[in-house]
Amino acid sequence: MTALLTIRDLSVRYRRDGAAVAALNGIGLEVEAGERLAIIGESGSGKSTLALAIAGLLQGSARIDGTIDWQASQFQTPRSVTPPSVLPDISPARGEIGSVNAGSLPAVSTFGEGGNESAISPLEGEMSGRTEGGVTERDLSKIDSNQIPLLGRDIGFVFQDPSSSLDPVMPIGKQIAEVTRTHIGLTWSQAYAKAKTLLERVRLPAPEAVLHAYPHQLSGGQKQRVAIAAAIAAAPKLLIADEATSALDTIVQAEIVALIRRLVAEDGMTLIFISHDIALAATLAERIAVLRSGELVELGETRQIINAPRHAYTRALLDAHLGLDAEPLLDRQGVLT
Ligand SMILES: Nc1ncnc2c1ncn2[C@@H]1O[C@H](COP(=O)(O)OP(=O)(O)OP(=O)(O)O)[C@@H](O)[C@H]1O
Ligand code: NI
Q1: Is the pLDDT of residue 196 over 80?
Q2: Which residues form the ABC transporter domain (predicted)?
């Protein structure tokens, strides 16, 4: 297998009330092309920080050390630099650059100040670039664009709360169409046709009607389907789902997990599935990485992690899940249930 991403010695510190909060500490991890990798750990263990670092979405105030190599160029036809018309208006005052290793994606990119959304072109990152801290963008003027993954084009990101990535006042069809217009240069009519196909692929009923609907007209599960459609619209190599099913009830959660599994298989995408639920992660992932307090404590094949965890913390996560009334994680044949 070939690594799509190689993360080396990645550390992230946030600043809070003048003090540094270490969110990740010396993470080393290879994500193989085409694999389904789950990242698990309890709240605050650094899962989202890792996902945001990979996607280039960390706030400018975060201090990042280490490198993240993106080796997708061998899997994709080289694409030209994003035209200046859709580049964000990056002011020199933004963020810091650092930690650039030759040939590596620098883990540090430049970022806008939180909430300064007006400086970002509305065509760029609208669907998948939004996060609670405000939209962030890599400074493409300083880095060879073929070496860094571009959010929306190379990486699709699905957040826990679809409302945070969907624009409440824009029709759904337009939101999805903008992704393919921006990243693969479709015309509006092509982009709308593609949006409709995507709504069919995520199994939304009445895709034609959904094209013209607004997010508030859909249920939580339907909104998450729309967010997934937008995330995969430009056929990214990597899909990151950060607690994408945590806000949904159990039945809808299972449906969304099944949807993600199908789409990833159909498109040959690499998946990073983030969850605090080891059992849910085990249903989807081939490998599981266990984070604890910003450290990678265990990484292995799902079967090994579930059957023979090496680290006491993984065992504790399993034990916490395996309450007396819990379903067994593996059935008698050793198949994940
Ligand atoms: N913007 C921020 N500013 C300051 N500290 C932060 C920020 N974001 C996260 N942290 C801290 O960094 C650590 C890791 O947080 P992170 O959100 O990555 O964990 P997580 O595993 O995703 O947790 P959860 O399961 O609750 O989503 C925590 O201690 C958290 O409080
Ligand atoms: Ni999180």
Answers
A1: yes
A2: 7-318
